[in-house]
Design goal:
Largest sheet of chain B: none
Order of helices and strands of chain A: EEEHEEHEHHHHEHEHEEHH
Order of helices and strands of chain B: HHHHHHHHH
Oligomer: heterodimer
Helix content of chain A: 25-40%
Distance between the termini of chain B: 40 Å
Helix content of chain B: over 70%
Largest sheet of chain A: 6 strands, mixed
Number of strands of chain B: 0
Number of strands of chain A: 10
Strand content of chain B: under 5%
Radius of gyration of chain B: 21 Å
Number of helices of chain B: 9
Strand content of chain A: 15-25%
Largest interface: A-B, 23 and 15 residues
Shape of chain B: elongated
Chain lengths: ~250, ~260
């Protein structure tokens, strides 16, 4: 029997003025799978995952997330669905006026009751911080943390609601190779521990090789090529070849 | 110029966008479940941030107004009217407008820069992704806090300015504390206070809305944040003068002047 996708994007179109970034783009994401989206800068990779979380509205097409057609959800229903879909921003997007504890507490205020927060928030924060190996930073401000630490805290904030899917927007961009490798390892360990599925937007060859179970190449707004890292590396198509040689 | 061309004009476009933003504020502010903790927090910060500057400025304004007005009043033998003149000037015009201008600079730019920085670093998107309505959490609370705190600051400015006036009167004269306050209060009527308080409510609202609008839709990275903060101050200050002009006309029509 075929597996049922937990995210299904069908014939997605999105334009910004004359620039058609997504043209009938489709993808399926399955349980406990890391799917990498690879493409040039400005090719619409980030737009795609922002459409999936409904931060951007597509021009046409269908997006099913955990059996919900997100275009038909009321705002409140979408907010509840967002608890199941974590998003790691490229810029980390930590609230810089809040401590690490307050940053991690913030997503809980919508999805947990006051009693749940009083009884369980502290242990949930500790667990999330231990998952990313930064329990000691709990009372620090984001400005006191290094780039790699900020990325880990952002990941801890994403994990605190125990999402079923995580959308990573260039998780290793701007990090040194050692820290980037650590983040990639962390992403793998999270996938193993929580059985999360993930869509990973990345340019980083090491990250792609380490984390990706399957790769989609987004070229000219379309799902141009698809396969494992090794499959695509051996692909003779000039656009795919050019891309890997350029990385 | 045709209507379509007028709509394309950046000025009209901006007016339209701010109007839509204001309409959204009223929609969100009237929906249930407000962010009261954040509102209290913002009231504290807005009041606290501007209090020192408003206090010092009000004190100096009261003092200077008294010193500058004395020679003219002496010339007409009306020196005894000095406390009355100072109190009416401070209550009707000087305190509300000076407080609002300081708040436009301090609070308007602060809100514009804070929200602008949150926009360009994707913190507003992160809030939305976490299921929190960022408009309600960031905009509604700040606009309401500015609307509440500017009248409070203006009232404090009146009290501090009157104290400055008392010192000014006594620099070249000898008026007792009781007599000064008695004269200052006797000169005031209900029609002086009401328009003053009402207009500061509108000033606060305008400062909050403009600051939030500029910050919330900030673009183009750090350059955009700086631009948001600067334009928030310029537009909010201009709004204060326009609203003041309208308030004077309305008060005049209603016979409150």
């Amino acid at each position: 029997m075929d597996k049922k996708p937990i995210i299904q994007v069908s014939n997605l179109n999105k334009s910004f003025g004359e620039n058609h970034v997504l043209k009938d783009f489709s993808l399926s994401l399955y349980e406990a799978e890391n799917l990498v989206i690879l493409g040039k800068s400005g090719s619409g990779k980030s737009v795609l995952i922002k459409c999936i979380i409904r931060l951007i509205h597509p021009d046409s097409g269908e997006i099913m997330v955990l059996d919900h057609d997100i275009s038909e959800l009321e705002q409140d229903e979408m907010d509840h669905l967002r608890a199941e879909v974590g998003f790691l921003f490229q810029s980390n997007a930590l609230y810089d006026s809040m401590t690490v504890r307050q940053n991690l507490l913030f997503p809980l205020r919508k999805h947990w009751t006051k009693e749940e927060r009083q009884d369980h928030a502290e242990s949930a924060i500790q667990e999330a911080l231990e998952d990313v190996g930064l329990a000691h930073t709990i009372d620090m401000m984001p400005v006191e943390l290094s780039g790699g630490m900020r990325k880990r805290i952002a990941l801890a904030r994403t994990l605190i609601l125990k999402p079923k899917v995580i959308l990573y927007d260039e998780p290793t961009t701007g990090l040194d190779p050692i820290t980037a490798r650590e983040i990639s390892e962390l992403m793998n360990s999270i996938q193993k521990k929580y059985k999360t599925a993930a869509i990973i937007i990345s340019h980083d060859l090491n990250c792609i090789r380490m984390t990706g179970n399957r790769i989609i190449m987004l070229i000219d707004g379309k799902n141009y090529a698809e396969g494992t890292y090794e499959n695509l590396l051996q692909n003779e198509d000039p656009k795919v070849k050019d891309f890997f040689e350029g990385l | 110029m045709g209507l379509a061309k007028k709509i394309e004009n950046p000025f009209f476009k901006e007016v339209g966008e701010i109007s839509r933003f204001t309409a959204r504020f009223f929609r969100e502010a009237t929906k249930p479940k407000q962010e009261w903790d954040e509102f209290i927090n913002q009231c504290y910060w807005i009041g606290f941030k501007a209090l020192t500057l408003v206090g010092i400025t009000a004190f100096i304004m009261g003092l200077v107004l008294t010193i500058q007005s004395r020679p003219t009043l002496v010339e007409f033998g009306a020196e005894s009217l000095l406390p009355s003149m100072v109190s009416v000037s401070l209550v009707r015009e000087i305190s509300p407008v000076i407080t609002a201008l300081i708040c436009a600079g301090k609070i308007g730019s602060g809100i514009g820069a804070e929200l602008g920085s949150m926009r360009v670093t994707e913190q507003i998107d992160a809030m939305e992704v976490s299921g929190t309505n960022p408009f309600k959490y960031l905009v509604v609370t700040r606009v309401l806090a500015a609307t509440v705190m500017v009248p409070v600051l203006s009232s404090l400015a009146i009290a501090i300015g009157l104290y400055g006036g008392f010192l000014g009167v006594n620099m070249k004269g000898d008026v007792s504390w009781t007599l000064y306050w008695h004269q200052a209060y006797n000169a005031l009527i209900y029609g002086d206070f009401l328009p003053s308080i009402i207009k500061t409510i509108f000033f606060g609202f305008a400062i909050g809305i403009v600051g939030c609008y500029k910050g919330y839709y900030s673009q183009k990275g750090t350059e955009g944040v700086g631009k948001s903060a600067t334009t928030a101050v310029i537009v909010a200050s201009l709004m204060v003068f326009i609203l003041d002009l309208i308030a004077v006309q309305v008060a005049d029509i209603l016979g409150l002047t």
